[in-house]
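DM from R.C. (forwarded with permission)

"hey, sorry to bug you on a friday — could you get me a structure for this? deadline for the figure draft is monday and I only need the backbone to look sensible"
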Amino acid sequence: MQAVVSLYGLTGFENIELSKNEHLLLDSLIRQKGETAAVREASPAHLATRSSPPFLQIMGDKDEYFGLSTVRVLDQKLRDAGVSSTVIVIPGGAHGTYNWYRLPNVPDWERQMTEWLNAKLSHSGPVGEGIQTREPTPHIPSSR
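My reply, with the result:
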């Protein structure tokens, strides 16, 4: 693997309540090792090593499922292992990209992601037609 881009991804199971989906994924490991050990072993933040690929994580600071703190933990673990790690925070961004376009002051994360991938994969061509420049959404104060 040459590079990882994570959009609002789960980076650890330790600080979330395991839902039905997580139990489907982890129950056999939990039966073997116990919940604490299984959760730790399955959490990407604990798998960071010097041989991990460079990471780009893009996460809203209002993600209602995982929270920005999980991204910070993986970021630090990668850096501690000597791995390139970059985080782009979407101010006011919830889980998923669907609402990011309506927020004020959102970084041009699509362009940043593409440029990051180009740099990590040594691609020297143009960024591409798929990314359109858009004007920042003006902030409209509420009328309270």
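R.C.: lifesaver. The domain at 4-120 is CATH 3.40.50.1820 (Rossmann fold).
me: no worries. The longest helix spans residues 20-33.
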